[in-house]
Design brief:
Mean pLDDT: 88
Enzyme class: oxidoreductase
Number of helices: 14
Subunit structure: Component of a multi-subunit COQ enzyme complex.
Keywords: FAD, Flavoprotein, Membrane, Mitochondrion, Mitochondrion inner membrane, Monooxygenase, Oxidoreductase, Transit peptide, Ubiquinone, Ubiquinone biosynthesis
Shape: globular
Structural class: alpha+beta
Radius of gyration: 25 Å
Largest sheet: 9 strands, mixed
CATH superfamily: FAD/NAD(P)-binding domain
Strand content: 25-35%
Family: Belongs to the UbiH/COQ6 family.
InterPro entries: FAD-bd (IPR002938), FAD/NAD-bd_sf (IPR036188), Ubi_Hdrlase_CS (IPR018168), UbiH/COQ6 (IPR010971), UbiH/COQ6_monooxygenase (IPR051205), UbQ_mOase_COQ6 (IPR000689)
């Protein structure tokens, strides 16, 4: 009776935070922050919050539905890799996780070369001869392992594996506590729930946030490739084909990782053919000549002459893409591609991070980098809230996170969506427009720097 009266008291908030009783008689465990989803973004967020000195007194729980799997440093490369931009790499370096990656393996990309199969217009970002890095290619599993190892050094972070959530109870108008129920009956509470649970986010659904999404009617085919020539493999190649882009990302001097966006029918065919037939189809996609309009040929030639007159045309030679020799056995796979964006990143006691908030086409390699940008911004925002003497779930601070990230993410997503639509057609006027755009971008160094800056 005494406890019941205490809970009715207006001065019993501390007691409510420490102990919450349920009808079945169990006592839930309370954390300041619970992160739903222990993938690359969720684990990097746990690590970032754990190492934020302004949040050292805050208890963080990371919930991951899958079991904990050790990486084990396999000899074969995984077919799922990410292209890490310099900002994300700096984040991992600051966390200490990059040392683990350096100890094992990664591939620097010094140049990105993009060209249109229907016109051969091209643009090059970076310089293969310089020391500047455009991006870093890292296997998903290795990056997650590096972050998982670093989380172990965060005394205020607990990780719970095999944690399948059945229900999120977000606070109502008067409440401040988030309730979380697992499938084994365990219950947790927190002041702030962070949804890092992917494109089908249960946290986002619990928020009832407006979510705009569509399918591209494409699949991304991935594989690990063996190259015919042994060379200094530091260039990422991307060719826009009529059915979608094909990209080769460096792994070693002899290996590259493939991301090939194509129709679902073609993707299923590519997965079913023999390895020799797959390699033949891939080399054809990289090398074959496509018939192009005479109008496009003449217009791009005239425009190139015009740029030369203005002394804007680039005389630098284009490198030649590699020829694929074979693929690693059993490395082929495919996944559906789509777009998604939540109009709300935050709510009372909750915030969305990474793919739970936004999803983009992989043609620019920016999807996971947007998530890592969310991580850095949210950590800074929560640190400022606590440092200023506010609560960690203060909506005014969470709105700052939402405003800052939407301002960046929407611009980037719009650019990626525009590129997808621009290159997802073979109509002559559109082919001409995009070809002239590639030529202009190649000629205008400030424009290229602006594009790289936005992507970084």
């Amino acid at each position: 009776m005494l406890i019941k009266n205490l809970f009715k008291s207006k001065n019993s908030k501390l007691l409510q935070v420490t102990f919450r009783f349920y009808s079945k008689g169990t006592v839930s465990k309370h954390y300041d922050v619970v992160i739903a989803g222990g993938g690359m973004v969720g684990t990097s967020l746990a690590c970032t919050l754990g190492k934020n000195t302004k949040l050292r007194e805050k208890r963080v729980l990371l919930l991951e539905a899958c079991p904990n799997k050790a990486w084990g440093n396999p000899e074969k490369y995984s077919n799922r890799v990410v292209s890490i931009n310099p900002s994300s790499q700096k984040l991992f370096s600051d966390l200490g996780a990059w040392k683990f990656i350096e100890k094992h393996r990664f591939a620097p990309v010094k140049q990105l070369q993009v060209w249109d199969a229907l016109s051969d217009a091209s643009v090059t970002f970076g310089n293969a001869e310089s020391q500047e890095i455009v991006s870093y290619i890292v296997e998903n599993d290795l990056l997650l392992a590096a972050l998982t190892e670093e989380v172990k050094n965060c005394d205020n972070v607990n990780v719970l594996y095999n944690a399948k959530v059945t229900k999120y109870g977000l606070p109502d108008y008067e409440g401040n506590i988030v309730n979380i129920t697992l499938d084994n009956g365990d219950e947790y509470t927190c002041d702030l729930l962070l949804g890092c649970d992917g494109v089908n986010s249960s946290v986002r659904k619990s928020m009832q946030a407006d979510y705009v999404s569509w399918s591209y009617n494409q699949m991304g085919v991935v594989a690990t490739l063996k190259l015919k020539e042994c060379m200094k493999n530091e260039i990422a190649w991307q060719r826009f084909l009529p059915n979608g882009p094909v990209a080769l990302l460096p792994l070693t001097d002899e290996l590259s990782s493939l991301v090939w966006s194509t129709s679902p029918e073609e993707a299923r065919r590519l997965l079913s053919v023999t390895e020799e037939e797959f390699v033949e189809a891939l080399n054809k996609a990289i090398w074959s000549k496509y018939s192009s309009s005479i109008i496009v040929q003449q217009a791009t030639s005239i425009f190139d002459t015009f740029l030369r007159v203005l002394n804007c045309s680039k005389s630098e030679k284009n490198n030649v893409p590699p020829t694929v020799k074979s693929i690693e056995p059993n490395s082929r796979a495919a996944f559906p591609l789509g777009f998604g964006h939540s109009s709300q990143y935050i709510g009372k006691g909750v915030a969305l991070v990474g793919d739970a908030a936004h999803r983009v086409h992989p043609l620019a390699g920016q999807g996971v980098n947007l998530g890592f940008g969310d991580v850095a911004c949210l950590s800074n925002t929560l640190g400022e809230a606590v440092y200023d003497g506010s609560t960690i779930n203060d909506l005014s601070y969470l709105r700052n996170y939402e405003k800052d990230r939407q301002r960046h993410n929407i611009v980037t997503m719009a650019g990626i969506e525009g590129l997808h639509r621009l290159y997802n057609t073979d109509l002559t006027p559109i082919v001409l427009l995009r070809s002239l755009g590639l030529q202009a971008t190649q000629a205008l160094e400030p424009l290229k720097r602006a594009i790289v800056s936005q992507a970084s």
